[in-house]
Design a protein that fits this description.
This protein is mostly beta strands. Helices cover 9% and strands 45% of the residues. It has helices at 4-9, 192-204; strands spanning 10-15, 18-27, 30-35, 48-53, 57-67, 75-79, 102-107, 114-118, 121-125, 127-137, 140-143, 155-159, 170-177, 187-191. This is Trypsin-like peptidase. It comes from Chelatococcus asaccharovorans.
């Protein structure tokens, strides 16, 4: 069972016409959206991100953007968020990822949107794919589940057994990118080791 806290944090991003997926992270009262670098390539401070998800349907002002100078396809966008969010319930630990591990990929494929009505109103739900880590390559890894356009920037999670409904058994191990051609039958992601580095840089600023 996927924890509701995780699903509520996954958002669809429309950034200057570039469609992708992001994950909302909250630390010490500050809000960040983790995504692929190319999704927010043309987004700058004072602009706004157009996002939608289970709890979101709004333009959120951008405060700052953090990304790797090495060119890795990963970025962290700090946003101005009026709502107060609890700290994340899942872990961000790259040491827990391994070859042949079961993983879950989340995203919003371009052209396919599924809205549901709940007590909270209309919600845009992310799609989920399951695969295994087929190969590890430094700060990148490959999953035997190809992704569609729009999944870029989406989170990759592993689950400890047994899983819990509050998300505490979930571990963020990577961020999806479009580096792997669809015809190869795999998808690629950057390790959450880079996520931790970006978070440390952002929280120190």
């Amino acid at each position: 069972m996927i924890g509701q806290d995780i699903l509520d944090r996954i958002v669809r991003i429309d950034a200057a016409g570039e469609i992708g997926t992001g994950l909302f992270l909250s630390f010490s009262g500050r809000g960040f959206i983790l995504t692929a670098r190319h999704v927010v390539a043309y987004v700058h401070k004072t602009q706004a991100l157009d996002i939608a998800g289970r709890l979101w349907a709004d333009k959120i002002p951008v405060v700052a953007k953090f990304q790797r100078e090495s060119g890795a396809d990963i970025a962290l966008v700090e946003v101005k968020c009026e709502a107060t969010w609890p700290s994340i319930s899942f872990s961000i630990d790259p040491s827990k990822s391994f070859y042949t591990q079961d993983v879950f990929l989340f995203g919003f494929p371009h052209g396919a949107q599924i809205e549901t009505r709940t007590q909270r109103g209309r919600e845009l739900n992310p799609f989920c794919k399951k695969g295994i880590i087929a190969q590890l390559d430094g700060h990148q890894f490959y999953v035997d589940a190809p992704i569609a356009k729009g999944f870029s920037g989406g989170p990759v999670f592993s689950i400890s057994s047994p899983s819990s409904s509050d998300g505490s058994n979930y571990n963020l191990i990577g961020v999806l990118t479009h580096d792997c051609p669809k015809e190869c039958g795999f998808s690629s992601a950057y390790s959450s080791a880079l996520v931790r580095e970006l978070l440390e840089e952002a929280l120190a600023s």
